[in-house]
Amino acid sequence: MxxxxxxxxxxxxxxxxKDCNEYDIPSTYNFEHVSYSGQTARLDMLQEMKDYIESTxxxxxxxxxxxxxxxxxxxxxxxxxxxxxxSKQLRGKTDASHQ
Length: 99
Known about the structure:
With 99 residues, the protein is mainly α. 46% of the residues lie in helices and 0% in strands. The chain has helices at residues 2-16, 37-54, 64-72, 75-78.
């Protein structure tokens, strides 16, 4: 019985992977219609957050509500230097278990 199961398993595995190594890889890519504005905004937000955190080197105290405002993109709390679309936020791109 073990031999039959073993042989059946070998046949099943070999049949299921017939096309495993066949990929249709294009030779060129077209990125003309790709928009990176959301990613760029979040990177700018993250840079501002980093700059604010690094300002403690000069002896400044960090405001936790401001950091949370930056993370959630709540402009009134974040006190951004830049202007960011309200729909863009760092929190939305963070794994829920780490928020």
